[in-house]
Write a structure and sequence with these properties.
3-stranded mixed sheet, disordered N terminus, 7 helices, alpha+beta, single chain
């Protein structure tokens, strides 16, 4: 169940390569998720002062180029622990370890041209990424009532992966409420049309080791109704088009997804396969 892997190595620079850090193909409900916050999961500064100082230098350069940059706080992914026991004896539950980071440090480590220099050679993902910001993103695999999956094509004006296909998502402020809010803002559908999210795992792209938590959400609208709502989506400017596609078409689009979102598709496929078995 845990630590499924994809990709050949952790510093593969292929944009679509990824690693699955956790997989829960049966889906975990909110009662099966807990979060432990603490400075033990914060980023550790690098001992190379020149490298560490490059964070400020890169941020200053980017700020001059883009006056709208804002240094907001983000949750930092510091690992997780899987338990069994829950409300029933065999029910799995997971505790996510989260620290605090910010957008400035994300730009200066994960998004830096020097990002690989911040990595530590280790099979342990927590050790590997101890010097990177690694803010935890989120994404939702939303399935319509006519069994289509919602996929956005990113605008050419966004900072990361312009033109790529992605699932709706962003930066969580709270695990389950945040992902519903992201779907509502990016797709335009009412929250009442969405099921309670099921947590299906965490992936990270190999390129600049960015982690993201993924959820499965069922939408009680059909694909035509969803398209109508998308035309007035609050955050529609972040994307240029919404696609509603069957699994086979999504398979073909996955090669044009950033690694963390391609990992989200892999998590969804594992969930679908589990459904078939059970």
């Amino acid at each position: 169940m845990e630590k499924e892997k994809k990709s050949s190595n952790s510093t593969n620079t292929e944009p679509s390569s990824f690693k699955l850090l956790a997989s829960f193909p049966s889906g975990l409900s909110p009662s099966q998720i807990s979060v432990e916050f603490g400075d033990a999961y914060d980023r550790i500064p690098h001992s190379d002062l020149t490298l560490e100082n490059s964070i400020s230098e890169i941020w200053e350069q980017r700020s001059v180029q883009n006056k709208s940059l804002f240094n907001g706080n983000k949750f930092r992914y510091g690992g997780h622990v899987l338990h069994t026991g829950g409300e029933s004896e065999n029910e799995p539950y997971v505790c996510l370890h989260l620290g605090l980071t910010d957008y400035r440090t994300f730009v200066g480590t994960n998004l830096s041209p020097l990002w690989e220099k911040f990595l530590v050679s280790s099979e342990d993902d927590f050790v590997l990424c101890q010097h990177t910001s690694s803010p935890l993103g989120n994404g939702a695999v939303v399935e319509t009532i006519d069994n289509k999956i919602l996929v956005l094509q990113r605008s050419n004006n966004v900072g990361e992966f312009p033109g790529y296909f992605v699932f709706p998502g962003g930066h969580p402020e709270e695990m389950f409420d945040s992902i519903v809010r992201e779907v509502v803002e990016e797709i335009g559908v009412p929250a009442s049309s969405l099921s309670i999210p099921a947590f299906i795992g965490i992936s990270r792209r190999d390129l600049n080791v960015r982690p993201a938590a993924f959820f499965f959400i069922k939408c009680n609208l059909d694909s035509k109704e969803v398209q109508q709502f998308y035309s007035s989506a609050l955050d529609g400017y972040e994307s240029t088009q919404l696609y509603t596609v069957p699994m086979i078409e999504l398979e073909n689009m996955a090669s044009r997804m950033p690694g963390c979102h391609r990992g989200g598709f892999a998590l969804y496929k594992l969930m679908v396969d589990t459904r078939k078995i059970t």
